[in-house]
Amino acid sequence: MPRTPTGLGELDPRTVPLPHGTDVTTRVDLLRDERLIPQGTLGRVVGGDGVTVELRLVSGELLSCRREDVLARKVGQVRYARARAARWDALLPGVILETTVGSLAWGLADAGSDHDRRGIFVLPFAWSAGLVEPPRDLVSEDGSVTFWEVKKAFQQALRADPNTLETLFVPGASAHDELGAWLLAEREIFVSAQIYGSFGRYALSQLKKLEQAQRLAEHRGVVLSWLRAEPELTLDLTARRLAEATGAGHSSDAVHRHKEYLKQLCRSLHDQGLITDRAFPALATFAQQPTALELPRELRPKNAYNLLRLLHTAIGWLRDGQPSFVLPEPIRGRLLTIKKGQVALAEVLAEAEATVPILEEAWRGTRLPRSPDWAGADALLRRIQTEVARRAWSDPTGHFGPQGPPPPAPEEEDPSE
């Protein structure tokens, strides 16, 4: 039963860490290239180091400013950011396993690659009791580091979640506590032929969604060009014109589908902080601005190459019985080419489809068990939880003992929110 605090107390909202994605407003007038950015301008946090923040303004422009020059738009966001930072500080010593993941672990890193880390933490016994719902993950302010609570990690691994299995099996995974060592020693209990679906079939389905997203992005550019030339176009007229342009015809059903797409486009741009309202006229206003839209996140080359990598990883694990995250040549070289955006998405999708018979053959002949070892996972989790409970009474100076971080106190919910 999660609770929300009712007051901010002595909290200074100008100093609370702002996670990436937080909606903010400027609290003072700012200058950018001798142009005034007035107080109250809306934006969204896309980067920063705690001292400065990088914003994407509602106009689409990027702006760098001091942290103290912006405020979260909603009180709830300030509270969330405060609680998030407090949980990170309190529970970080409970991390029992950690590793580097992503392109650095796959042998596909370049100069611009992030250093992403994932791991698993254990809650002190006192945090797992009481009214307050304990956190199930810890995420760094910039999103590059994620730790899962141990039970959540077990549940994900038993579903053959690719991110969790990568965390457990990628070379370099290190234990920070004997609890982490237990987990690494028994990680094979999570492995099963379910990798076929969670890695392979999942990657194929997502690649097909990318193809659809690409078509929608192309439609977006067409719609904005129309509105730039004819800002008086209505939602209905634009939907009818788009249905005709895409070959869907004049039927009411086709027009309705394209009308829903235009509404979705407005919601998406509003959620990105690029337009001030979800209504269609805000899109027409946005079209008059000279700002170029970035490629949607899902269409960036790294997404296509990562899904194809996931597919090849599944094939290798099913066929060989052991994971290999650094793929052999020429696959590795091809993935790097795709990552650089030098291969059309349609070609990537064709390559993925060509691997389907190989994936099916690997699945039929795999030596992996059909299901993970649920009983073994349950026994290991109970062993870890029992040890944490033991330390709560016998380790007075440790993180898991009575001198460890106190759990958050329950507070009344604010009826005004």
Give a brief rundown of this model:
With 417 residues, this protein is an alpha+beta fold. Helices cover 45% and strands 13% of the residues.
Low-confidence stretches: 1-10, 413-417
Largest sheet: 5 strands, antiparallel
Number of structural units classed as domains: 4
Helix content: 40-55%
Strand content: 5-15%
What global shape is seen? globular
Strand order of the largest sheet: 6-5-4-1-7
Report the radius of gyration as a whole number of Å. 25 Å
Helix and strand pattern: EEEEEEEHEHEEEHHEHHHHHHHHHH
Ends: how far apart?
Answer: 17 Å
Number of helices: 14
Number of E-type strands: 12
Arithmetic mean pLDDT:
84
Which structural class do you get from the secondary structure elements? alpha+beta
List keywords for this structure.
five-stranded mixed sheet; five-stranded antiparallel sheet; disordered N terminus; alpha+beta; about 425 residues; SH3 type barrels; single chain; globular
Q: How does the SSE layout of this entry go?
A:
Layout: E1 23-26, E2 30-32, E3 35-37, E4 42-48, E5 52-57, E6 62-66, E7 70-72, H1 75-91, E8 95-101, H2 103-106, E9 116-121, E10 137-139, E11 145-149, H3 150-158, H4 162-169, E12 174-175, H5 178-185, H6 195-229, H7 235-245, H8 252-271, H9 280-287, H10 301-320, H11 331-339, H12 345-354, H13 356-364, H14 374-394
Parallel strand pairs: 9-11
Antiparallel strand pairs: 1-4, 1-7, 2-3, 4-5, 5-6, 8-9, 8-12, 10-11
Helix pairs in contact: 6-9, 6-10, 6-12, 7-8, 10-11, 10-12, 10-13
